[in-house]
Amino acid sequence: MDRVTIVEVGLRDGLQNEETILPVDVKREIAEDLMAAGVKELEITSFVHPRWIPPLADAAELACSLSPVEGVTTRALIPNRKGLERALATPVDEFAVFLSASETHNRKNVNKSVADTLPVLREVVEEATTRGKRVRGYVSTVFGCPYEGEVPLPRTASICGELLDMGVYEISLGDTIGVATPVQVREFLKALTKEIPAGCLAGHFHDTRGTALVNAYVALEMGVTTLDSAFGGLGGCPYAPGASGNVATEDLIYMLEGMGVETGVDLDALCRVSEKVGRRMGKTLPSKVLASWTATRRLKEGNPHE
Amino acid sequence: MDRVTIVEVGLRDGLQNEETILPVDVKREIAEDLMAAGVKELEITSFVHPRWIPPLADAAELACSLSPVEGVTTRALIPNRKGLERALATPVDEFAVFLSASETHNRKNVNKSVADTLPVLREVVEEATTRGKRVRGYVSTVFGCPYEGEVPLPRTASICGELLDMGVYEISLGDTIGVATPVQVREFLKALTKEIPAGCLAGHFHDTRGTALVNAYVALEMGVTTLDSAFGGLGGCPYAPGASGNVATEDLIYMLEGMGVETGVDLDALCRVSEKVGRRMGKTLPSKVLASWTATRRLKEGNPHE
């Protein structure tokens, strides 16, 4: 486990759940700062219809404003053929499609059944692949659904199989509402990796109940070495406004470095990005490493209670 | 791992690092509420000289104000013979002695070398044991010291040996400044339990860098089934004011119940305690389960952004 891939989703999954709408030039600066801090995979936005996610309405503008950086992959979420066309007109490197393992959550999210969503995604993936773009897949609510509770594993396994069959190169397993606990993650991955290779899987953990980091640790133990996270721990939960968001990139990196994993990310530079964004949004971002970094810096500056 | 003992240290380790000084009747009410929520081990205060920790200056008064509850053990920290005498005049059930694995931290904390501290503790433990009281031991900074950095394991092992030899029944291993990471905890416990039985050990993790819960999980995996925590995640870090405190009892219990461990604690009742204390202290306590519980309740009441 000496190589772990961190997928920074703060600009997409983080911002889509925040009330504050950041201007496109601020987002561009954040993206550039994150790349300068050493982030190599960066999900920058979503090409859903601007009406559905106003904070990401500037998707095309943001994607076009970024200069390519050697060794960095940018990615955007694509809901359907229309979104794909908009995205293909920008220089974003890769795409991602998404659906829910839970029927009800999928209907609420994209107004379609899972069965009706799959052909839409297949069309997107096939067209994108033809145009030379790699496509990642997201499966939401695999560890629990806000409407249905537990989601049977065979459902997730079958959806993962369909996605791989379409040509998706990696599937990110989402604990969308942050209910998963470590033994659940271990047992889930033990069963799922009998059908889907661990190398095709990523872990996407939300910290709604504080378990995101331990779930990420267990995923690593089970051979899943790609993990999604958001700088500062950005992003809330639409089902619990005020709750914590994605696992914080800072906290994940601190843990990984303590485990001897080289991440290539400069933790100090990353904390500076998050602090600036927190100030801009007028809130304290939930990352614990960020809080401790901020406290230590204030102490050094002689203003412990700023 | 179907039995885990949770030692609630919020009233002691939590409050000793908080600026707000709670009146004794509020503390008594908290203690009673915690017991009513199902907490079975409760560290209520410290009999250090009131000058050193003003928030705990009411130690004797608090200890005397509590009525014994069937099945609940109360405990107080004892620094020396004088503290022991004060504590023995109260009905507190058990005691705890403490020192640091790091020489510098111990000197800063108790103004004595480790070698000079051990005889003081031995006197306390022997006298307490003679008076029919069980004594727990705390070893601080075992995973890292704010002054010395890494602390060699043989140092901790030797201190643990001394404590057991005095008659201490359990040793709580403190990640005082919250620097530990899971592989470190695993390797540390693998080595330490060659000399000290896991059944005599407890884990005391601070969440300064977000790793407390994953460290607790690893400790459980290594056979350490007693864990310290504070309701709401109370307690900061004197070396980083504003950073997070002890692992939150709520988050620990949520994880344990997801692992099929029966804790006997009513999570809903516990969140009510923490919410009340947070309101009283005028701050949001850091527990993530608490945040999600609060958010869900506000949503139900129709005030999501209260």
Automatic annotation (TrEMBL), chains A, B:
<dbReference type="InterPro" id="IPR000891">
    <property type="entry name" value="PYR_CT"/>
</dbReference>
<keyword id="KW-0808">Transferase</keyword>
<dbReference type="InterPro" id="IPR002034">
    <property type="entry name" value="AIPM/Hcit_synth_CS"/>
</dbReference>
<dbReference type="InterPro" id="IPR013785">
    <property type="entry name" value="Aldolase_TIM"/>
</dbReference>
<keyword id="KW-0456">Lyase</keyword>
<dbReference type="Pfam" id="PF00682">
    <property type="entry name" value="HMGL-like"/>
</dbReference>
<comment type="similarity">
    <text>Belongs to the alpha-IPM synthase/homocitrate synthase family.</text>
</comment>
<keyword id="KW-0479">Metal-binding</keyword>
<feature type="domain" description="Pyruvate carboxyltransferase">
    <location>
        <begin position="4"/>
        <end position="271"/>
    </location>
</feature>
<comment type="similarity">
    <text>Belongs to the HMG-CoA lyase family.</text>
</comment>
<protein>
    <submittedName>
        <fullName>Hydroxymethylglutaryl-CoA lyase</fullName>
        <ecNumber>4.1.3.4</ecNumber>
    </submittedName>
</protein>
<dbReference type="GO" id="GO:0004419">
    <property type="term" value="F:hydroxymethylglutaryl-CoA lyase activity"/>
</dbReference>
<dbReference type="InterPro" id="IPR043594">
    <property type="entry name" value="HMGL"/>
</dbReference>
